[in-house]
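Morning!

This is the sequence you dropped in the shared folder:
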Amino acid sequence: MSSPAEVPIPPDLSRRYSGSSAGRAWLASLHGLICGRLERWELEVDLEPGQLPWNGHGGVVVPVTREGVPAALKVAYPHDEARVERFALRLWDGHGAVRLLESDAGTCSMLLERLDAGRSLQEVPLETAVEVWGGLTRQLSLAPDHRPEWQEFDHVAARAEQWSDDLPADWEQLGRPFPRWLLEAALEVCQTRGAVGRRAGTDVLVNTDFHYLNILARPGNAWSDGFAAIDPQPMIGEAEFTVAPLLWNRIRDLPRTDPQQGLLDRCRDFSAAAGLDPEIARQWSLAREVENALSYASRAHHGGDLARSLWVASTLAGRTLEGLPAAHDLPAPGEAAGLAVSPS
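The structure's back. Tokens below.
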């Protein structure tokens, strides 16, 4: 077992946060933050010598034990999504999501149930993933109640209203990186769903980053059951908002004969498994991918990510853009991608 002094920081996490003064300050403090939580929560590091802790985009996860029981210590870079994660986990209380054992707002740290980091929904056949995801979504879609945690979450309808202002301004500022009709399709969704979402009375707790890699198996369970959500990005609103990440991930698993229809079928199948409206899910997914496309267009070296977002968004809109790579040539999220994009 490693000692606290030997807990290494994953290199890709160091690279990600070394580009800003705030990021470098956090990296410099990270060892102290980890040691402080180990001492405060009476934890033992459970890493073999030379083994790296796990990490995602925004934090490090150290396998630990407490009184011999496996757990995971997560220390996140302090940002809005990390600050509200613990509130959602408290509400779910281990039902459909990883169980929260301890949390500390000041250090953006949590002690979590240990899941099997090597067994995510990314590896299971899609027909199994549909059923697992649908069942978890039903569990996670809590209706608001009197508990104070609900006051911490933004509303999906408010996000749509913000996009109604931001998307056209960003599209102009970025030199109109895709055709106007696709922008207008997203704005129609924002205006329609934003207004409906405000008055429909169907608000639930929504995990907006609920994709295959963010669903891990509980140790000892078969592939077909015992999964739980990790790294939630919670909001309140229409549950259909949660479908989009399933569509921009695992694109290479779409049928080669007709990937466009395969994408629409996937939206329908996952929606049905969770008891959601597939048309509302399609609309929200379209708008979310247009917003993603503008975000990628604003950054250098993200041509492949931009191409993927444009392919998904325009396909959901019923008119796949020309000039994009074939669906099975699009990069997965997180892959290095320098593809040229000339949508028309």
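Headline: The chain has ten helices and eleven strands.

More detail when I'm at my desk.
O.
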